[in-house]
Design goal:
The structure is a homodimer. Chain A is mainly alpha-helical. Chain A has a domain of about 140 residues: Tetracycline Repressor, domain 2, CATH 1.10.357.10. Chain A is built from nine helices and no strands. In chain A, helix 1 crosses helix 2, helix 3 crosses helix 4 and helix 6 runs antiparallel to helix 7. The model of chain A has no long low-confidence stretch (mean pLDDT about 90). Chains A and B meet through helix 1, helix 6, helix 7, helix 8 and helix 9 of A and helix 1, helix 6, helix 7, helix 8 and helix 9 of B. The structure holds a DNA duplex.
Chain lengths: ~210, ~210
DNA sequence: GTCATTTCAGAACATTCGTTCTGTAACTTG
DNA sequence: CAAGTTACAGAACGAATGTTCTGAAATGAC
């Protein structure tokens, strides 16, 4: 954990906290809406340094997305466990999704990936690839959790399709939060999602298998 | 259907087609990404006229969203019927959602509401209200369809919650398409969604009711 | 034809955009 | 100390932004 001192003048800012500020701004204003001027000011990073470290606005945005994934999305995936029964883990997962989407609600609810990055993906192919990679990672993680619950080929619905469905629901909840929905409105939807996914599971393993 | 001729020089463009061009650009580039300059050029509308008719970029965007809802989203809702059994209507609904999300796929998959408007909603409160209104309208329409299938209070999941879930899935599919997913990848997810919603229904009406 | 009205074409507006450049300051190395 | 390296502050860049203005063109009303 040693602070490997490098040569030259030391930075006057903490890179992690600077990226957190970038995440906040990008999430609220979008990629095009967040100006480099405001980014520098709120990150407390000089313009020249920003270009040295991140290569420009596009690189900074990708770095912010990575930071967001590490600090905000990782806990959501971690909630999947396995830590208990599938019902409990899915419930914890959607609870974490709702917490993610309604954080900083007054100034800007939503998700950096499913709002800002998804919008920017329309014009920038590089961003579309990044969006696809983030979505794939989440679906693979959910697939693994379902397989751990013995959700295999016997079910009518494959674990991959069920995971894609579970992920789609999560993204839909995030968009609902973006439109202003609060925890009280989102939670019943999440509960219905958990019930629906579980019955999907039982349909295959208990039913006409 | 008479063309009520008004005084003054007649317009040199068709307003409907002009708005279609605005929809195309806004959907691909986003609200901030689409410049007034390009909008005028591709809509074939003079700048002065654009400001006279729509009041500015913000008004134009809202007009484009309305046009999009009338021409693109309305058919999706119409697919809900009731025209057949709930399973068939839900299948048709998600098929229409997929068609909507993958239209004009080469240049920009996705949805004007769930990508461009959702992103712009972060900074503009007016847009957030518009997003909420569009989402509410869709959920109410789905709720009505579920109630027509005798999905009422007897079920464990209320028709309102089930409709919110069904709508969330639709939005999640749209985001998946935005990331590059094609019809082949989206359809199994949609089929799983239909199965999940139907089992949710049966769980309540046939089970421990 | 004359007037009122609406649209059109394009210049012009002040801002703001993302990016680059010019020095100067602060640190490690030798 | 001097040399080398990195980060700082801020001006400067051309290009693009959303909006407004000016005057000419094309129509219905009278």
């Amino acid at each position: 954990m040693g602070e490997a001192r490098v040569r030259g003048r030391p930075r006057g800012f903490d890179e992690g906290r600077a990226l957190d500020a970038a995440v906040r701004l990008f999430r609220a204003e979008g990629y095009d809406g967040a100006s480099v001027d405001r980014l520098c000011r709120e990150m407390r990073v000089p313009r020249a340094t920003l270009y040295d470290r991140f290569g420009g606005k596009e690189g900074l945005f990708l770095a912010a997305v990575a930071r967001y994934a590490d600090t905000r999305i990782a806990p959501v995936l971690a909630a999947l466990g396995p830590a208990g029964a599938l019902r409990e883990d899915l419930t914890a997962f959607y609870e974490a999704v709702i917490a993610l989407a309604t954080a900083d609600r007054e100034e800007a609810p939503g998700c950096l990936v499913s709002c800002a990055l998804a919008d920017a993906a329309g014009a920038h192919p590089r961003f579309r690839g990044e969006l696809a990679a983030r979505y794939d990672a989440m679906e693979e993680r959910i697939t693994a959790r379902l397989k751990a619950a013995e959700w295999d080929g016997r079910a009518t619905t494959s674990p991959e399709s069920a995971a894609a469905l579970a992920a789609s629901i999560a993204r839909g909840l995030i968009l609902a939060a973006r439109s202003g929905a609060g925890t009280a409105e989102l939670r019943p939807t999440a509960e219905a999602a958990v019930r629906a996914l579980l019955t999907l599971h039982h349909e295959g393993t208990l039913g006409h298998g």
